[in-house]
Amino acid sequence: MVLPIVAYGDPVLRKVGKNIEKDYPKLDELIANMFESMYNASGVGLAAPQIGLPIRLFIADASPFSEDDELSEKEQSALEGFKKVFINAQIKEEVGKDWVFNEGCLSIPDIREDVIRKDTITISYVDENFKEYTETYDGILARIIQHEYDHIEGVLFTDKLSSLKKRLLKGRLGDISKGNIKIEYRMRFPNMKKAR
Q1: Which helix (H) or strand (E) holds 119?
Q2: What is the average pLDDT across 109-127?
Q3: Ramachandran region of residue 191, left (φ > 0), alpha (ψ -120 to 50) or beta?
Q4: How many angstroms separate the CA atoms of 141 and 163, rounded?
Q5: Is 20 inside a domain boundary?
Q6: Which residue(s) pair with 118 in the sheet?
Q7: 97 and 88 Cβ atoms separated by less than 8 Å
Q8: What pTM value is reported for the model?
Q9: What pLDDT does residue 24 have?
Q10: 89-102: pLDDT as tens digits
Q11: Tell me: the pLDDT tens digits for 149-173?
C-alpha cells in the first residue's frame, strides 16, 4: 500500500526515533509498504518518520545510481542491487574527506541543495530478521545512509545548509508545509487532516 509522505513542517520529522523490538506490530507489512511508497515517489531511501512513525527504521535501494556513467564500474557494481532495511541503526564513525553532493528529500519536494558530509561511515543495525550487522560504507552508499539516518535522529538535510541558504529557502519551505506545491506522489501536510 502506498503511504503518504509526511511534508516538511510536521513535528514527527523532528523527533528522535525510538528503537523497536522484533515483535513490532505488522513489521513485515510496514517495510513492504515503505518500499512501495518509496518507489512510487521515485526515491532511493525512506525513513519511518517520513510516513509519520517516530521509530528507528529506514530503507534504501541504491540501484538507480548504478546506471550513472560518471561512476567507476566498481562503484556501479556496489550500487547495483543494494536494497536494505536498517532497524535500530547507530552510526559509529564518520571519517574520510568532506565531499559535496546534491541532495533532495521526499519530505521536501522540489528543493535540492549541495550538502557536505564525510565520505565513509561505519554503522551498526539489525535487518528485518533482527540479524545484527556492523558495516562500513563509502561514497554514494554512505551518503544515502547518512541522509536516512539523519531522519531517525530528527535532522533534515536543510539543517546542514548555511544560514544564508536557509533564509533563501524559507519561503519555499513554508509553501511545502502549507501544501502549496505540485507533486506527483501522495503527501500529508502538517495543517491538513487528509493526505493528497
Answers
A1: strand 108-126
A2: 97
A3: alpha
A4: 27
A5: yes
A6: 98
A7: no
A8: 0.94
A9: 97
A10: 999 999 999 999 99
A11: 999 999 999 999 999 999 999 999 9
Averaged pLDDT for residues 170-181: 94
- Mode of pairing for the β-strands spanning 132-138 and 108-126: antiparallel
- Asked, for residue 193, whether it belongs to a domain, the answer is no
> Contact 60/145 with Cβ under 8 angstroms?
yes
- Between CA 72 and CA 66 the distance in angstroms is 10
The single residue listed with the C-alpha cell 567507476 is 72
For CA atoms 85, 90, 95, 100, give the dihedral sign: positive
| Residue matched to cell numbers 503518504 | 4
The answer to whether 189 and 8 are in contact (CB under 8 A) is no
What is the distance between the alpha carbons of residues 193 and 196, in angstroms, rounded to a whole number? 10
* Count of structural domains within the chain: 1
Q: Which residues are catalytic?
A: 148
Distance CA 36, CA 68 (A): 23
How far is the C-alpha of 3 from the C-alpha of 39, rounded, in Å?
Answer: 11
Q: Which three cell numbers stand for residue 177?
A: 508545509
Domain containing 58 equals 5-188
Distances (CA, A) of 161 to 27, 77, 164: 34, 31, 8
What distance separates the 2 farthest-apart alpha carbons in the chain? 47
Question: Which CATH number is 82's domain given?
Answer: 3.90.45.10
User: Is position 103 within any domain?
Assistant: yes
CB 105, CB 112: distance < 8 Å: no
Assess if residue 25 is contained within a domain. Answer: yes
Nearest to 3 by CA among 36, 44, 28: 36
